[in-house]
User: Which sequence fits this backbone?
């Protein structure tokens, strides 16, 4: 068995040998192993901070202790999904719980740590787990914090990476979801092998990620990629960000629904959209597939706005491809054809016909945890005991 | 004296010693030295290509043969300026000639090589010159070509770097002028020490350059930065590129003049602008400084368009600063204050108050040759004789 | 079906429609599809070079034409293995043939292209194959050539990448085998997530690869990593490279066998090594495992030399880990323990206990093709028809 | 005059206008300006940390507040030199004091801050100063600390960057002297334009710096470049680091003197070296220049050791050039010729004749402060008031 306290090896000292029997049961591999481990580690973590070195145990390092797995976490408004992912991007196990059940951030982090501990247990080799990556709305890679997320329960600046690292004794990295999805597509999807590309995520908001020279362009404060808040129509629709005419107000979920209201109010043409109680983007897409002309018109207008916005993006950035993800992007040709038309009309002439518009390659439900796992590999290894 | 044919050193062979007298005069340092050198090098270049190795001369390498100077070339529609620039960005000598006098590209390159030869002569140490950098409209760094420049006399794809390298036996790099100016400001000006910034050049056109992680973001085909051809007003003014509503049509010279026509036609308010035969941007700026209200209004509208465009740019890239160069940027506060107002209104809220708007630091006339000299250092050293 | 001639799409012209019947059979998916494809492509390639644009066919690009597979090629003295590898590093199919059967490089490239064509056929979607990566002894990434390989049948500079690209119409990259193995371990093995590490391959020669800031350090001419030809013992054993005392002469296969001769001649101690006709490294390792003291002594001396060499390496580069691959590294503890002792004694004191010595994680037979597939993703996409 | 409290600008609020008279005298530019500034900043810094925002003053930002100067600090055992350096590497003013006068680190930092304040005053525009770079023995770039320097008065880990930043309110970066010298040569000297090179400093110790892809290779813990502690002669001379046979024990000052003792004791040949009371490297070099055969022999042996060590370095790293600095390197041809011979004999054959050995280009006394100034530009700008 791999030693629990490999970090002690470097101490090469065995002072308080009387404590060994007390701790010896940790070596018996049983169900509660990981939870105890986490608690013990937390205690030791505090000790370490108080400059108290704990040379309790000395166990020989086993040769070739490879780190072959990481934990990817996808924090959403409705639920938090954690996954055990190996080097090749295979998701080996999942855990999830309702995010809203933990409005207190400290309790949330404890729950998340427990959830990860279960995955570590399932892995069969907790010491082969290298680090943790987290995809979160308003996650800032530079600071490791969730910063002023409008929709998550915790307000202000939440130092999530630091809090979780203290609980787990593992390195933790945080980034926003558009960046995580882009990492997933770069490592295991449509952008594999691309050095300069853009990913645009069309969900409840509109975010994006820029890869430049093979690396994410974070910008000087980590805020780059706010395509959703570029101005599409000066003095246009009110956006949730406080500005008017933001692209997001036309292309993200809420914008699509607002376009649907406009389309429906412009005429009396019959439409399946009139018959549902609560219209959603998914329903509009379904109605498009059923040939509903007004639904198709909604997507046509959405695609036009999207195409103009992406053309500006491409003129500035000259990407090899623009990859689309998120619920709106699932409209397929109803969105992509008008988007492509508007794109080709508005893009700088040298790039006409040269920029690929692609849908994301990986499945929606995997994109964020996959990307979070890539992020986990990017952060430097860390151990409480080193 | 540094040997002319340092490349021969590696051969370490002196076979045809009878040829030495023939060539010995090259060691006499006289006015025609460099021109002969260039011709000789061209001949040897051809020989080398025909796999004929010329072990004519063997001269001992003098210790510490430092390369301390480069040539920066600024190709404009009206004139071509070449400058001898040292490591610290000091311009030691200049040569210039009228670009339009050489409509034949081959004759142009010959004239340019002669011009550079004069600078090499002036340098006092031709072998201390490392390479050549060229700033040219529509210059493409990836290919070393001028590609379809609308205003230069040579049409299509002009392989300038390759042609000049063959003439000079020195490495030659080419880039467009926005990139060159950005390199100048990064190496010796307002952007020194910045890793992520944007330079926007407002001249007869509107170009820009993006620095990401300390390097130029060229884009997948080398076309990145086309801020001038992002859409500012859908269905708006006709742009020279064929599209409608491009930002350039509102903020570059021609756009400013068009705005002036509009402003003048809207009212009968007296204005200095009405009295001149041929209105120019410089005149409008002068009239602003004299308090002419309509001229100020022209710059206010220009600044507004600029501010909106730059806000979109910043929302996407989150730069530390946006640096402005070019004739329009010389309007100072008449342009910057309305631009700043529009910028702060339209930029993504997290970046409000965080992005510096700066004028370029170096003098206009030096910006391009300085940047071209930085480019020259970036290219790998090359010698016909290695 | 994905169109064969997707590149024609951009032409958007259908001039010679009478040629369609002639070529239509290509759309019928049959056994010889790929071979014909290759031939056709070669013809078109030549046409293209003669500035003859061939607008023979126009087929609509199918949405989301993902490139999900590449070809990895491992050229060895005895055999050439090609493999179809997907994004996640799964080897889906293999082809191999004896390298020595094709002493003429042109015939070899034809055979290799045929071999790859078979893999493309097996893939079921030839157009989903993006590019080709090749691991070859003396392969130079910068030039795409095999340069003066002492053991391969083709002498001098072999422009393999260019030759194969012309045959296949796909981008081709070449690198040496140490670099390929390092890429495999970085993408899918022991070095995943590491930014600064060293891989050392101990086979018939001793090569290595340095990763700095997450990228391979190729050096200014592409020759970096020659650990095998650093001096271990001044005036020591004659190395195949012409120098004396190279580390390789003590740690690669031939060196291990020479050490075995020395050990055997120093005493009359019985040893299993005395009983075999042709001693090999594998046999010595087996004898170590059987407890043969002289075999263990051979590996102890080898390990000592290795440890001293790696300590110098680490003192210069401060890697996170040194990863060992190749036949000699399979000696396990017989090699690693003495190597580790010598390493810790000789390394710069600040790094003591901090540099991991690890064996390669992937299986020997997969390392090179896997690494070659990673290389294939690194090269820019290329198409004859763009 | 540039406003003292530019950071307040962003507040755009002027609440406590009655405080203006109290603080107004800061605008009078007098001798004590900067010292008061520093104190005020410290107070405000504390306020800021207690989430107390101080909207005391509102002063209009002057357009184009460029940062055009930095402070470079060179900490040596004997003295500490601070210099005001502009963007182009011109040293505009210097201050120095004896390092050993301040054995208490806190007092040292206060003295250093005072010294820098004097430079800021001399600059005429304290707000144009961007940041501070420090070259120090055992300086670690990653941590900003001086770590266990054997020769400086302060023991253990000294968090110099953090301490000085708190005093000055400016960003501070720290690196070791070999890295600083390499940065100086890269920015303003022999390595300008090189992407992959090595700098080796031969002073009282032997350190080095590796540039890979244009950036310093720091290694995973920031310890890369320890060429001095690679093994030159197994079981050889005792090195100060505790190991035996380190290259430094043969090539740095102490090693050269030990070689001199050996040479003198081997024969009775007369030598100028016998007549001096305290032999130094400078004297040996002088005696070489006077033709003293034993002194020349000392340098020949030193050069041989150096050449072997550099050959190993080059075989691993394939640099474009190796640049030498430090007192031993001033021996010129007496060192370089034997070094070059040994280098060419021992380097991997593909690199023979391809690696330049160069002396540093800048003057010895400027190298460290110049490099420290380059380092200062590399660190991100920081302000107490942002």
Assistant:
């Amino acid at each position: 068995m791999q030693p629990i306290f490999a970090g002690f090896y470097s101490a090469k000292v065995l002072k308080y040998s009387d404590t060994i029997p007390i701790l010896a049961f940790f070596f018996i591999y049983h169900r509660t192993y990981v939870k105890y481990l986490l608690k013990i580690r937390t205690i030791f973590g505090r000790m370490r901070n108080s400059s108290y070195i704990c040379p309790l145990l000395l166990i020989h390092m086993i040769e070739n202790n490879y780190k072959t797995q990481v934990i990817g976490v996808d924090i959403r408004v409705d639920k938090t999904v954690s996954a055990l992912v190996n080097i090749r991007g295979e998701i080996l196990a999942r855990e999830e719980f309702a995010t809203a059940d933990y409005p207190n951030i400290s309790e949330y982090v404890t729950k998340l740590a427990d959830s990860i501990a279960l995955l570590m247990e399932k892995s069969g080799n907790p010491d082969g787990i290298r680090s943790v990556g987290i995809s979160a709305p308003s996650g800032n890679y530079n600071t490791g914090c969730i910063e002023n997320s409008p929709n998550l329960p915790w307000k202000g600046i939440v130092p999530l990476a630091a809090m979780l690292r203290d609980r787990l004794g593992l390195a933790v990295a945080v980034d926003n979801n558009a960046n995580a999805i882009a990492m997933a597509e770069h490592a295991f999807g449509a952008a594999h092998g691309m050095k300069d590309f853009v990913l645009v995520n069309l969900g409840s908001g509109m975010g994006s990620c820029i890869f430049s020279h093979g690396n994410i362009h974070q910008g000087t404060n980590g805020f780059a990629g706010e395509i959703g808040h570029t101005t599409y129509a000066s003095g246009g629709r009110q956006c949730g960000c406080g500005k008017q005419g933001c692209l997001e107000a036309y292309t993200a979920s809420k914008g699509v629904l607002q376009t649907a209201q406009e389309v429906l109010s412009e005429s009396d043409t019959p439409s399946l959209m009139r018959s549902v109680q609560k219209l959603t983007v998914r329903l509009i897409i379904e109605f498009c597939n059923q040939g509903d002309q007004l639904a198709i018109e909604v997507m046509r207008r959405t695609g036009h706005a999207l195409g103009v916005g992406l053309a500006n993006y491409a003129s500035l950035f000259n990407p090899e491809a623009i990859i689309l993800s998120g619920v709106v992007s699932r409209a397929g040709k109803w969105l992509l054809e008008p988007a492509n038309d508007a794109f080709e009309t508005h893009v700088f002439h040298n790039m006409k016909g040269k920029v690929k518009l692609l849908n994301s390659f990986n499945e929606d439900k995997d994109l964020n945890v996959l990307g979070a796992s890539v992020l986990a590999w990017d952060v430097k290894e860390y151990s409480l005991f080193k």
